[in-house]
Amino acid sequence: MCFFFQKYGYTHLSAGELLRDERKNPDSQYGELIEKYIKDGKIVPVEITISLLRREMDQTMAANAQKNKFLIDGFPRNQDNLQGWNKTMDGKADVSFVLFFDCNNEICVERCLERGKSSGRSDDNRESLEKRIQTYLQSTKPIIDLYEEMGKVRKIDASKSVDEVFDEVVKIFDKEG
Ligand code: AMP
Fold this sequence. Notes:
Elements: H1 3-8, E1 10-14, H2 15-24, H3 31-39, H4 46-63, E2 69-73, H5 79-89, E3 98-102, H6 105-119, H7 126-149, E4 153-157, H8 162-176
Parallel strand pairs: 1-2, 3-4
Helix pairs in contact: 2-3, 2-4, 4-5, 6-7
The structure holds adenosine monophosphate (AMP).
């Protein structure tokens, strides 16, 4: 069981992982479209991502009503995501805080290329990573800035080692959890 669930009661959901799983599902009508977006480092249309998140959240809470705290990884990533979230979740969910893993591009690229040696991900290559950085700067950073203005961002220096980053995350959850 995930450490964050055991200690703080959060269920971890990754938007990217849900999209990659959906892409693998031969019955999904969105498989090809998702693959194209991911390879191009682009943000998949919000209707798809939100419906996957909603499905997971609903199933988790239906199985255990106390599992109502979620750590959503990689979301919202653009204005469209944010609007989709506000429209679907208005009055149903509160955003407590946003974890921002701040790391420079060179280190991110280096780490993803290393991960690419074994990940099998179609976006762990230099070309897709360059596109992902552009998408991040144009679409995701402004969303982080919006949450910053609301006082919701908790920033972590993610250029440090895995253990140091983990310790920082734990400190934040101990305070906010
Ligand atoms: P990640 O697993 O977070 O590194 O995301 C990998 C890719 O999945 C991204 O480059 C996007 O193409 C797609 N993706 C992840 N999160 C989202 C999201 N919130 N909205 C749309 N597409 C996403």
